[in-house]
Structures are given as structure tokens and as C-alpha cells.
Amino acid sequence: MNKTLITLLISVTLLLSACGGNASTEPTAEPAIVGVALAEVTAEGTLLPQRTAELAFAQGGVVKEILVQPGEVVAKDDIIASLLGVESAQAELAAAKLEQTLAQQALDAIHRNALSTSSQTEQALLNAQDAYESEANGWNLGNEDEATDLELRLDDYVIAEENYREAREKLDDVLDLDKDDHDRMDAQEDFDTEKKSLQEAYVDLKSALAENDKMLNEELNSLLNAISKLEAAREMQERLNDANLDPEILAAAEARLESAKARVAAAEAAVASRELRAPFNGTLLSTDLTIGESALPMTPVAFVADTTRWIVKTKDLAEVDVANISVGDSATVVLDAFPGETFTGVVTAFDPVGKIYLGDMTYQVTITLDESAPRFLWNMTAVVTVDTGGE
User: Are 29 and 51 in contact (CB under 8 A)?
Assistant: First the structure.
């Protein structure tokens, strides 16, 4: 008997008591109706595995293989079935993972060899500097009026490079001073000026070389070659960041790795869309698959459940009754399939959103059973009685 019926009987009893008794004309006080907390609340429900899943392929295709049959136990990520084309998707995934491994190794090598790269770059600059000085020491412009534009620009570069080197040495001598020290600031300013002058001289030299239409002698050619190697070595050293890494090379390696990761993700998605995998440990209850037949995308074709725990969800628990139930209340369950047997459980959850059922507002309550049995089947009808602790 539910709370609504009990409350109605109590109200009728109080009304009869008020009308029956002494016929005295003396006014009597209205009887006080005291709320009664129900000791039990009863509702109908449905037996369900605690954890269930309806599985579907992400894309349509022809069923290639069925690896698990209904009633068999599956572990998380076990393949239940697959579609044609999964082999090519798996091959692409293997290739993508290999590229990701190679890209990661290349990036790791860049970081691992940073100190070595810095040392090699420094040594290359010293070697280029020595080679340049060896060639530049024999340079003599001669008669300026008879010199070509290329020879004039070359002479400008030699002078600018010497000034740059002297400014560099003076700055190196004061780098141990504070940054706001006047001597260091002056040296830095001179160096920046000479560096800019050298850069401009090199640009002018390259322009003159491009416009030159005369045959270069061996001396001139050797000096120009030494200048080219020196500038390339300087550029390489200046490109290194504080971690002794070339930002361009580093960026390219990182971009390669990110591209490889994206390729792996796409390949994994392609494989996953052609495979049906168990989302958790459980039992395959049923399938709607046949090898060689088509499976529609996003259409459930297999049902998996964890049958180690079972629950009952109520469907007609009225709002006047749900207020008396709390999580943790003990409950008994009778299944229509097994008359005369009683199973125990506990209230474990409430659905806070009410739903209309047979014209009444109802709230779904979940009872977790204390035991499971192989004979339990999905959607069996149950009657739940919850002990609310009332009187």
C-alpha cells in the first residue's frame, strides 16, 4: 500500500471521529492532522544491468568478420566485429606511427645535440674567419680611378669587416660589466653601428657581383669565396637561440612531429570507424550482424552489458512518495519471473527530473541489488519496496 492510499485512510478516519462522538452543542476544537511518515514505499520497476552499451559502426560498410558471439564474455577494447577495408586503414595507421616515431627521434636529436651544434658552428666561424683573413691580407685595391665597381665594393667590405671585428673585440672585453655601465653601453653601440655597416657593405658587394660582366681573376675569386663562407658562418651562429638551437630547424622538426601526430589520429579514427570494440568488461548479449551484409552507420548492431551488477529503475514512483526516500535506504525487490523470491538492495540514485506516467508526476529511483544471478535478464518486471525508516 503506497503513501497516497494510507494518507487518504487516515483522513477519513479522523473525519468520522469528529462527526461520531458526543452530540454536545459546546464548540470543539478542530482536530489537528499530523503528517505520518510511511514505513514503506512501493513502486514498479525494470531490472537492468548496471552498465550497458549499444554499439554501432561510425561508418557504414560490409561486415568482414565477427569475432564474438552472443553470450560470450568480452574485455575492454576487444574487437567484436569489423568491416571490409579495415586492413588498409590499419596499414596506414602503422605507417603513420612509424613516421611519428622518426619525427620524434629527429626532434630529440636536435635537442640532444644542441651543445655539439653550437661548438661546431663556433668552430666553423673561426675557420671561415681564418680563411678570410688569409685572403684579405693580400688584398690591395690599387688605383681607385681604374678600379671596377665590384673592386670598390669589395674594398668597402674589407674595411667594414675590419672595423666590425675590432668593435667585436672591444665589446667582448667589457661584457663582464653591468649592462648599464657606460663603457659597455658605448662598446655595444659602436658594435651595433659597425655590424650594420658590414651588413650594408655585404649587400652592396653582392649587388655589384651580380652586375659584374668581367672575368674574375683567381685572387678576386678566392677572396669573394672566402667572404661568402664567412658570412654564411656568421649567419648560422646568429641564428642559434639561447638554447643553442636553430629556430628554423627546430620549428621544422616540431611541425613534422605535429603533422605526424595528426596523421596518426586520422588513421586511428579510420580504423576505429571500421571496428566494433567492447567499451568495458562485460558480456555480449546480442548482435544484429551477418558476414557479407551491410551495416548502416550509427545504427546499433550489438548490445554489451556488465552483468556482474544489476539495478532496478522505478517507473511509477509518485512525487508524494519520493520525498520519503533517501539514498542508502534498504529495499526489497520481487521479480515477476521468480514469484515467491525476494532480493535485497539499496537506493543508490535519484533522477531529479520528473516525468508524467499514467497521468501522474513520477521520479525515477535506482536500486542496486546486493546479488546477481545468471537467470537475471534485461528488462524483467520488478516490484520494489523501499524501507524509509518511518512509522
Answer: no
Which positions ≥6 away from 312 have C-beta within 8 Å? 45, 46, 47, 48, 333, 345, 366, 367, 369, 382, 384
Q: What is the pTM of this model?
A: 0.61
Helix (H) or strand (E) holding 50: strand 40-55
Task: Collapse the DSSP code of 235 into the 3-class scheme (helix H, G, I; strand E, B; otherwise coil) and give the result.
Answer: helix
| Grid coordinates of 314 | 522505478
Decide: helix, strand or coil at residue 177: coil
Nearest-angstrom CA–CA distance, 55 and 75: 15
Query: Would the CA dihedral through 71, 272, 54, 293 be positive or negative?
Result: negative
pLDDT in tens, 46-74: 999 999 999 999 999 999 999 999 999 99
Strand 294-295, strand 282-287: pairing? unpaired
Angle at 50 between CA 2 and CA 327, to 5 degrees: 45
How far apart are the C-alpha atoms of 248 and 102, rounded to whole Å?
19
pLDDT digits (tens, 9 = 90+) for 318-345: 998 998 999 999 999 999 999 999 999 9
Q: Which long-range contacts does 239-247 make (Cβ < 8 Å, 24+ apart)? A: 240/117, 240/118, 240/121, 243/111, 243/114, 244/114, 244/115, 244/117, 244/118, 245/110, 245/111, 245/114, 245/117, 246/117
- Length of the chain measured in residues: 391
- φ, ψ of residue 126 to 5 degrees: the values are -60, -40
Helix (H, G, I), strand (E, B) or coil at 184: helix
